[in-house]
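Lab notebook: predicted structure, single chain.

Context: the supervisor wants predicted structures on file for every construct in the current expression panel, including those that have not yet been purified. This is the next one on the list. No modifications to the sequence; it matches the entry in the shared construct table.
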Amino acid sequence: MTEPIAAPAAVRAAVPVTAAALTTLAVAAGAWVVAFRQMNGMDMGVETELGSFESFVGFWMAMMAAMMLPGTAVAVFRRARVRGVPQFVGAYLGVWTLVGVVTYAFYRPHGSLVAGALTVAAGLYELTPLKHECRRRCRERVQSGLAFGVSCVGSSIGLMLVLLALGIMSVTWMSVIAALVLAQKLLPAKATIDVPLALAIIGLGVLIVIAPAVVPGLTPAM
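Prediction complete. Output recorded below exactly as produced.
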């Protein structure tokens, strides 16, 4: 009777690693569904209210899982080789939850002037050395979810500021910002791409200040 052929060690080792990365992506997909349902009918552009603290934290956690977890799949893939994936992801999302608490404390419904100023500031941040350093660290192998989270907050906070400025409950802007965050986590920095993007964000901010009516969804329809 022939003995069953054992799977190569490399294949056996890759199974839990791949499973961890796929689970992360599945959680992110589920979070998109939850976030879309929570955002339904809530988008009032720059005049959006956040509601109660409890409801906002629930929404924010779903939104962060949806937007940020796809870009962590590579880090989770690496982390799964040494175990501790749930703790890693939990610490990472914990950092973004703290950002949400700060957001709730300072966010207020605002007008187009404030939205434009915040968008310009976000574009300028994209050009700073701090942004580039945080983005570099966010792409490197890290030892903890906390360190990874702090680096990724520093890398993506400017883009998140655009979302807060233009409509935190906007499905459209959430999707655009999520795509940019994912691209910056996975792709190497290139001035030929990053500088035009930053200038485009600054230009959008200027446009919001001088002609807010041409920016769709900025203010609720009357």
